[in-house]
Write a structure and sequence with these properties.
- The chain is an alpha/beta fold and 447 residues long.
- The protein has four domains: 4-133, Response regulator (Rossmann fold, 3-Layer(aba) Sandwich), CATH 3.40.50.2300; 151-313, Rossmann fold, CATH 3.40.50.300; 317-386, Helicase, Ruva Protein, domain 3, CATH 1.10.8.60; 395-445, Arc Repressor Mutant, subunit A (Orthogonal Bundle).
- The protein is built from 19 helices and 16 strands.
- Helix 13 (324-338) packs across helix 15 and helix 17 packs across helix 18.
- It is globular and about 65 Å long.
- 31% of the residues are buried.
- InterPro entries: AAA+_ATPase, AAA_lid_NorR, CheY-like_superfamily, Homeodomain-like_sf, HTH_Fis, P-loop_NTPase, Sig_transdc_resp-reg_receiver, Sigma_54_int.
Length: 447
């Protein structure tokens, strides 16, 4: 039996390191062990491994798993294609699932099954070898839009089918988790630009200092670390669709630069004076009330007019109860295939429980709940008791006791900061936003 290549194991438990090393030396040509991830990125460059087995906790007494997620991101900065298998305790399965969404290949639960551990790591290593053999770049797979049966979604579908064929700028609004990016991809797929890849940009993650470079590109030597010419997102989206998510998070003084590019239909790279024509279809999305922000002087009115040729609002899931179960059943099929589980169905009481839940996290929350249920459940029927659905306080929406959306955001961020003891990664995860978006909001609200 031929051995796989090099594997790096990172775990602060020396007993675990020794046991796994003994097990894997028969299956991998080289097994490198690290009791601390501090030197991990440099070891990756030296050893060029096929796979990494990464523990999720390293600091004594701290078992949040956030360290594992941090090092996962560091690994991906060095080698984005490198498979990372997370090593986690049963109690941290939920966090491991988040890790997969953020780039991990798979996870192994401690105490582990030797056969499953070997099979998982060999499969991950094989994917690296296969990628090295193939020069073809695979296109990312995005879930198809599910329109549902509700009247409001069918009306939205009719509108989208009319406007998708045009080049009109579209503004998509809706609560977090309603599927704004998915709708943007659907619009793109129905347009004449569908043969080019849609370029998506999360405006909440772009720092102010890199805004122009990220969107417009730069030329070599234009600033420190500009070692080569770089194409910005606008140029990358030429002849295609540019999707700007969380547009409401763009600082006011940068909005004029974006407006100029949209109006002139050209951009100028940082460090250059030469205009570059661009042909894009612009789609923006936000969960904020931009008209209200205009009134407060936080968003440019002229920019709003430019991006708002067509405005579409995605209704929250709680306002279309008839779509909840069909959506959940689609998630069951997908996750049963993903985790190699036998087909499952909902017990009748489970359907009732899911339908009655308000789903303030919308489709994203539903997807997360179903994924967890598929992983844990071992029977053909998923019972109601498997769903521990807590309802967060949302009096600002239900009773209008909070006068503005901004006040509600402040209250939610403060509560999350208290709950997570100031751990910003955990706070961002709980709120369903990126760390950069969280930083921007805390700065904005003086928190």
């Amino acid at each position: 039996m031929s051995k796989s290549g090099t594997i790096i194991i990172v775990d602060d438990n020396k007993g675990v390191l020794t046991a796994v090393q003994i097990l894997l030396k028969s299956y991998f040509s080289k097994v490198v062990t690290l009791s601390s991830p501090v030197t991990l990125t440099s070891v990756i460059r030296e050893e060029m491994p096929e796979v990494i087995l990464l523990d999720m906790n390293f600091t004594s007494g701290i078992n949040t798993g956030n360290e594992g997620l941090f090092w996962l991101h560091e690994i991906k900065k060095v080698r984005p294609e490198l498979p990372v298998v997370l090593f986690t305790a049963y109690a941290d399965i939920e966090l491991a699932i988040r890790g997969i969404k953020e780039g991990a290949t798979d996870f192994i639960v401690k105490p582990w099954d030797n056969q499953k551990l070997v099979a998982t790591l060999q499969a991950a290593a094989a994917s690296t070898s296969q990628e090295k053999k193939s020069n073809a770049k695979e296109e990312p797979i995005h879930p198809a839009m599910y329109w549902g049966e509700s009247k409001v979604m069918q009306q939205l579908r009719t509108l989208i089918e009319k406007v998708a064929a045009t080049d009109a700028n579209i503004l998509i609004t809706g609560e977090n988790g309603t599927g704004k990016e998915m709708l943007a991809r659907e619009i793109h797929s129905l347009s004449h630009r569908k043969h080019q890849e849609m370029i998506a940009v999360d405006m909440g993650t772009i720092t102010e200092s890199l805004f122009e470079s990220e969107l417009f590109g730069h030329i070599k030597g234009s600033f420190t670390d500009a070692h080569a010419d770089r194409t910005g997102k606008f140029e990358s989206a030429d002849k295609s669709t540019l999707f700007l998510d969380e547009i409401g998070n763009l600082p006011y003084h940068l909005q004029a630069k974006l407006l100029t590019a949209i109006q002139r239909r050209s951009i100028v790279r940082v460090g250059s004076n030469t205009p570059i024509p661009i042909d894009i279809r612009l789609i923006c999305a936000t969960n904020q009330n931009l008209q209200e922000m205009v009134g407060k002087g936080e968003f440019r009115e002229d920019l709003l007019y430019r991006i708002n040729t067509i405005h579409v609002e995605i209704p929250p899931l709680r306002e279309r109860e008839e779509d909840i179960i069909p959506l959940a059943e689609r998630f069951i099929i997908r996750f049963c295939k993903q985790y190699d589980k036998a087909p499952m169905k909902f017990a009748p009481d489970a359907k009732e429980k899911l339908t009655a839940h308000p789903w303030y996290g919308n489709i994203r929350e539903l997807e997360h709940v179903i994924e967890k249920a598929v992983i844990i459940n071992d029977s053909p029927l998923i019972p109601a008791e498997l769903f521990q659905l807590s309802v967060p306080p949302r009096t600002g929406i239900q009773e209008k006791s909070i006068s503005t959306l901004e006040e509600m955001e402040i209250q939610m961020i403060r509560k999350a900061l208290d709950t997570c003891a100031g751990n910003l990664s955990a706070v961002a995860s709980q709120l369903g936003i990126t760390r950069q978006t969280l930083y921007n909001k805390m700065k904005k609200f003086g928190l």
